[in-house]
Design brief:
alpha+beta; six-stranded mixed β-sheet; Molybdopterin biosynthesis moeA protein, domain 3; Molybdenum Cofactor Biosythetic Enzyme, Chain A; binds ligand LQZAQKY5; about 475 residues; elongated; binds molybdate ion
Length: about 475
């Protein structure tokens, strides 16, 4: 006789794609703010940046040499002045004359071309000394014919005036900062007073972080049981890896260092957990990330606290709704997503501030916490930061060796990218994939998206993978050729 099927679980297992859709549907880009260029790295433009003026703003020389009238060349010309970068010559060049010019300097009026000094012969008087070959002469013989525009950059040839040089939604890196600076950034398209050298970008989220678990010891801090930070941990105690790891992951994803609110280690107690959520709301956190306490044990209280079902919620003044409580994924099955708010009311009985925080209650196993953070928290942060496409980037790669599939859940297998040709690069898999082995995350460039089993994904077959590492540091260097 086959045993009866287990009763349906309160939280059905959501496919991962649906879980990402749910969290993204609850997150909004944060309101725009104006910041100086110097702090724009990693932020996302809320408005287009329009060049305040053409670049170059004047016809400029591309070479050190002589500004000439093209119709005079070849021929002998009097040098009547000099136009240098930062010290332009404003008087006109007549026929038969030319001006010494340096790279980047404005072309004087009347001139329409530049001849590099290497293509000119100096005409020296008896009393001229010519120690410095680069110094201007009083007269030169231009050896070649010239055409108008030769060795010059026309006004606006790099950037026309009024052109959009950076589009809203652009992630700002060092080169975008350079482009914005060159454009003067004064004419940023927004309705408000113009401010020099500022950019209009989306705000950055505030993220509150807690590790939950009676067994946890804050690294460098005494556990509640131990008397001194210098004492060795007692039996059953575990160093808290998740909080330092996820604080760094949040900063790597674009949260400001000062916008990570450390809620510490919280005990497996509904009242303590509810107070922790209340503290995060009072700190105005947009996102609350916890780890641990979301599975099936008798000390796993987070789901009841986040759904507002625990009596402790009334005392702490919080209410919440759990949007999903399990996801069909390995590792990370108990991943829980909720929205919480304060239940304080004003004198009219309305919600005091209406602030709602998104809560990601990640599983406690460090790998499960790390993988779920990448898969759902990172896209949420990107959406709040204003990314045009907040989802993780997906690539195709070829499996180096057979991988056994999990019979129950699609698996996110941590892997290192390497180039296909023989090279001394690390192997594809980061090794044993159990969710407590955090070393399987170190050096991982991608999460291979392996389907649910049965069976095996064959070595040599193509698999999709989500990028979680910095590919600039990946072992995908081609041999020099
Ligand atoms: N009967 C069932 N038991 C479990 C199930 C299930 O479906 N039925 N799911 C398993 C899965 S999958 C996972 S993942 C874990 C997740 O459990 P929790 O989220 O409740 O996490 P904890 O029990 O609190 O901790 C799990 C593990 O990780 C260690 N841990 C926790 N926090 C940290 C930290 N900050 N730093 C380092 N290590 C940490 C903790 O000591 C445990 O070893 O549940 C399974 N159980
Ligand atoms: O899903 Mo749990 O994260 O297997 O270890």
């Amino acid at each position: 006789m086959t045993p009866p099927p287990p009763p349906p679980h309160r939280y059905p297992m959501l496919p991962m794609q649906d879980a990402v859709d749910v969290v993204l549907s609850r997150a909004r880009p944060l309101p725009a703010e104006e910041i100086p260029l110097s702090s724009a790295l990693g932020r996302v433009l809320a408005t287009d940046v329009v060049s305040a003026r053409p670049h170059p703003p004047f016809a400029a020389s591309i070479m050190d040499g002589y500004a000439v009238r093209a119709s005079d060349c070849p021929g002998s010309l009097r040098v009547v002045g000099a136009s240098r970068a930062g010290a332009p010559m404003t008087s006109a060049i007549a026929s038969g004359a030319c001006a010494y010019v340096t790279t980047g300097a404005p072309i004087p009026p009347g001139a329409d071309a530049v001849v590099p000094h290497e293509r000119c012969e100096k005409i020296l008087d008896d009393d001229d000394d010519d120690d410095d070959a680069r110094a201007p002469a009083r007269a030169v013989r231009v050896l070649d014919a010239a055409t108008p525009g030769l060795w010059t950059r026309a006004i606006g040839s790099d950037v026309p005036g009024g052109a959009v040089v950076l589009e809203r939604g652009t992630l700002i890196g060092p080169h975008e900062i350079g482009v914005a600076a060159l454009a003067g950034v004064r004419r940023v398209l927004y309705t408000g007073p113009h401010t020099t050298a500022t950019l209009r970008v989306h705000g950055t989220p505030k993220l509150a972080l807690a590790s939950t678990g009676d067994e946890l010891v804050d690294v460098g801090v005494a556990s509640s049981a131990s008397s001194s930070p210098n004492e060795p941990p007692r039996l059953g105690e575990i160093y808290d890896a998740n909080r330092p790891m996820l604080a760094a992951a949040a900063v790597a994803a674009g949260v400001g260092v000062d916008d990570v609110v450390d809620l510490g280690v919280v005990r497996d107690d509904p009242a303590a957990l509810a107070r922790c959520v209340a503290a995060a709301l009072d700190a105005n956190a947009d996102i609350i990330v916890t780890t641990g306490g979301v599975s099936e044990g008798d000390r796993d209280h987070l789901k009841e606290v986040l759904s507002g079902e625990s009596a402790a919620c009334v005392a702490a003044g919080i209410a919440g709704v759990v949007r999903f409580g399990r996801v069909a994924m390995k590792p990370g099955k108990p991943l829980t997503f909720a929205e919480v708010r304060r239940t304080r009311t004003d004198s009219d009985g309305r919600d005091a501030d209406g602030h709602v925080a998104l809560v990601f209650a990640l599983p406690g196993n460090p790998v499960s916490a790390a993988v779920t953070f990448q898969l759902v928290v990172v896209p949420t942060l990107r959406r709040m930061l204003g990314w045009a496409d907040p989802r993780l980037r997906r690539i195709r790669c070829r499996l180096e060796a057979d991988v056994r599939l999990d019979a129950e859940r699609p698996e996110y297998h941590r892997a290192t990218l390497r180039w296909e040709t023989p090279c001394a690069a690390p192997p594809g898999s980061t090794g044993r994939q159990i969710s407590s082995r955090l070393s399987s995350m170190t050096g991982a460039d991608v999460l291979l998206e392996l389907p649910r089993g049965p069976g095996t994904a064959r070595g040599g077959s193509v698999a999709s993978a989500l990028v979680i590492g910095d590919l600039r540091a990946a072992a995908i260097q081609l041999a020099r050729f």
